Amino acid sequence: MARATAPARKALTTAIAGTLAFVMFFPILWIVVLSFKSEVDAIRAPLQVLSSGWTLDSYGAVQERSDYFKHFWNSVIISLGSTFLGLLVAIPAAWAMAFVPGKQTRNVLMWMLSTKMLPPVGVLVPIYLLFINFGLLDTRIGLVVVLMLINLPIIIWMLYTYFREIPGEILEAARMDGASLREEVLYVLTPMALPGIASTILLNVILAWNEAFWTLNLTASRAAPLTAFIASYSSPEGLFYAKLSAASVMAIAPILIMGWFSQKQLVRGLTFGAVK
Amino acid sequence: MATKASRAAARLMISPAVLLLLGWMIVPLSLTVYFSFLRYNLLMPGDNPFVGWENYQWFVTDTSFTAAMVNTLLLVGGVLLITVLGGILFALLLDQPMWGQGVIRIMVIAPFFVMPTVSGLVWKNMFMNPVNGIFGHIAQGLGMAPIDFFSQVPLLSIIGIVSWQWLPFATLILLTALQSLDQEQLEAAEMDGASWPARFWFIMLPHLARAITVVILIQTIFLLSVFAEILVTTNGGPGTATTNLTYLIYVSSLLQYDVGMGSAGGVIAIILANIVAIFLMRMIGKNLDA
């Protein structure tokens, strides 16, 4: 039975937690504010920034000066592409391991996970040289493949933990009722598996969107996604606070929104089911 | 109730994933090991002779290697300390009844979804810049000399930025674990007269121990590979003050084009990460049986 909490105590907790949450969130809030200011106003003292006029100029300028949408589009293609390519390989694998577990299933799963522990920098040189040899440097297809491979273990693991929760008896019941394999997959399995697959897609798009080791090292300009595009602001353009803010807001907004929907899946996905 | 046919089908369904991951692991890994024994620099064409352990000797005896190892240790250790302690506090706080819990929770978790290059640049320019950053403005307002973060306390600044990104992760995991704690057990302890510190120490902390271990291990794997935050803020400097192992390998392979040296560093990084990975895998494996 939940205890009744004294309103005074609840108010105090709310105040403390709210303050801390505000501090954590403040950098994000601040770039949103700066993105609507002129360059001159953006570098003023905080109170002067707040009292200065608002403008949409920076958003237009970012697109005009650096073709923002090209990079945005690259990010979309790379994160969606790598996720769906990964699903294509992962769904059958996770399926088989969840429903037809063999003696080796546990070892295979653990081994797949171990490939995720490989530090990217450990294979930076060979991947870079292979990319040069195959003309993949600064191409989207190259990044799609690499990001698919580094996230594949997470995709398989997430799907596996979701599929394992689907009771096998339901499938048997459907079979007894005379459902064909096609009907079984289409009407029984798919509806039950969809939420898990959706969560997996969500988390992996987020991870691929924010991936900043391979995207920085394997692209120059053509295939550069937003991570690499923002990095180009490191100097001396970083001094243009309003434009940097506008570019940053546009780069993180879609993921922030997706992230809010995926809090629970994040725990499951990133701890490989060790914490639920 | 697996039949022979369904087993064969299962094997067929698993094989693409296994083959892909096998290729992803074996090909680059064996190339890294192979390159690490060659004198191989992209700027110096010609044959690449086998030189034994020479690259390793050069890499390990270089002063920047020692610096990078110390920095890596401080970076990983510092961020772990901040995020685990902070994460426990945040989780305990967010677990209390309050108004607007959903919104507060979302605000705390948000930094985790910010891409590394954005958080690096935003902290560097909008906050830590001594002239135009908020911290600079505050210092001026108080009549103090502003701190030039990236030249005075470069590594600490990086630790701060990375902690901001990972504190939400630790909080989220620990909060999830805390919420699975049996409330009746806590209430029983309270009725028996156990004080809050006693309840925290003897009930909550043991319950959280597993989640804390998972947070430490997973974060360590990711923190060993911190790269973008360093690239956009300090480029590893001043000197080697913020060069971690990952960044050092990046410098020798992609900036100095020294394939042999970079590969030797890569092998060392893999060995280091594997030491952590072994413990992590054991924890996850245990959970798989349960």
From TrEMBL, chain A:
Stretches assigned to coiled coil: none
Record GO cellular component, one term: plasma membrane
Membrane topology: Multi-pass membrane protein
Annotated ABC transmembrane type-1 domain residues: 72-262
Subcellular locations according to the entry: Cell membrane
CDD domains per UniProt: TM_PBP2
GO biological process: transmembrane transport
Keywords linked to the UniProt accession: Cell membrane, Membrane, Transmembrane, Transmembrane helix, Transport
Residues passing through the membrane, by range: 12-36, 72-96, 117-137, 143-163, 184-209, 240-261
InterPro entries, A to Z: BP-dep_ABC_trans_perm, MetI-like, MetI-like_sf
Superkingdom classification of source: Bacteria
Location (main, coarse): membrane
Family the UniProt entry places it in: Belongs to the binding-protein-dependent transport system permease family.
Protein name (Swiss-Prot/TrEMBL): Sorbitol/mannitol transport system permease protein
Organism: Rhodovulum euryhalinum
UniProtKB/TrEMBL annotation, chain B:
Family: Belongs to the binding-protein-dependent transport system permease family.
Compartments, as annotated in UniProt: Cell membrane
Principal cellular location given in the protein's record: membrane
Protein name: Sorbitol ABC transporter membrane protein /mannitol ABC transporter membrane protein
An example Gene Ontology CC term for this record: plasma membrane
Membrane topology: Multi-pass membrane protein
UniProt lineage: Bacteria, Pseudomonadati, Pseudomonadota, Alphaproteobacteria, Rhodobacterales
Organism: Rhodovulum euryhalinum
A Gene Ontology BP annotation from the UniProt entry: transmembrane transport
Pfam family, one: BPD_transp_1
Record keywords, A-Z: Cell membrane, Membrane, Transmembrane, Transmembrane helix, Transport
Keyword DNA-binding among record annotations: no
TM segment ranges: 12-37, 73-94, 106-123, 155-178, 208-228, 259-281
Keyword Protein transport: no
Ranges of residues in domain ABC transmembrane type-1: 69-280
Superkingdom of the organism of origin: Bacteria
